[in-house]
Amino acid sequence: EPEVTQTPSHQVTQMGQEVILRCVPISNHLYFYWYRQILGQKVEFLVSFYNNEISEKSEIFDDQFSVERPDGSNFTLKIRSTKLEDSAMYFCASSEGPGQATQPQHFGDGTRLSIL
Amino acid sequence: AQSVTQLDSHVSVSEGTPVLLRCNYSSSYSPSLFWYVQHPNKGLQLLLKYTSAATLVKGINGFEAEFKKSETSFHLTKPSAHMSDAAEYFCVVIHYNQGGKLIFGQGTELSVKP
């Protein structure tokens, strides 16, 4: 079964440094998403992306965050200047359609980001 | 606005006994609801989805959920727990007209005792 793959599985970065989290969505999917889960808290939506544009973003997704689909297969999340509170598990997801139940989102295994 | 509330943060059952994980939803529209499971150090796997085609939804690994509009509930059940069912379970609703944004419940950790 096709999978969403995320790299790296664990990223340790110094505060203030830039970090790029990478995702390879399922190949025929057109909609892409990032979520995060701070330890002990809910999974939170960050951003959705379709047709090379952001469709929706949350309040968390401020100017420090950006997303890109640099080629036909990768989907990246960049945090420009990391803060301690960015430490979390980041999940990438993709779907064929805009997320309705008939075309659900499929998630990767996540990248655990630790900011020191 | 859509939201989901999972009524138990932790449920513990014995192997072979039934599982009930409770979820209530709030929605202005007819909701699209999901249950996802997260095993330790793994991603979120779709267990089942409610699409309004049927109120009783069957998912993978013997799980099912019943949509009850009168109770605004979407509880997850399994007749007989297996050790491999131990995981975190999330009730999820789609937020319409917001780019496919999923709204997650707080999660229920299921423990299965031998």
Structure, explained:
The complex is a heterodimer of chains A (116) and B (114). With 116 residues, chain A is an all-beta fold. In chain A, 0% of the residues lie in helices and 49% in strands. Chain A has strands spanning 5-7, 10-13, 19-24, 31-37, 43-50, 53-57, 65-68, 75-79, 88-95, 106-107, 111-115. In chain A, strands 2, 4, 5, 6, 9, 10 and 11 form a seven-stranded mixed beta sheet that branches. Chain A is globular. Chain B has strands spanning 3-6, 10-14, 19-21, 23-26, 33-38, 44-50, 56-58, 64-68, 73-78, 87-94, 102-104, 108-113. Chain B is an all-beta fold and 114 residues long. Chain B is built from no helices and twelve strands. In chain B, the strands form three sheets. In chain B, strands 2, 5, 6, 10, 11 and 12 form a six-stranded mixed beta sheet that branches. In chain B, strands 3-9-8-7 form a four-stranded antiparallel beta sheet, with no helix packed on it. A two-stranded antiparallel ribbon of chain B has the order 1-4. Chain A binds chain B through residues 4, 6, 31, 33, 35, 42-45, 48, 50, 55-56, 58, 91, 93, 95, 98-102, 104-110, and chain B through 32-34, 36, 41-46, 49-51, 90, 94-95, 98-107.
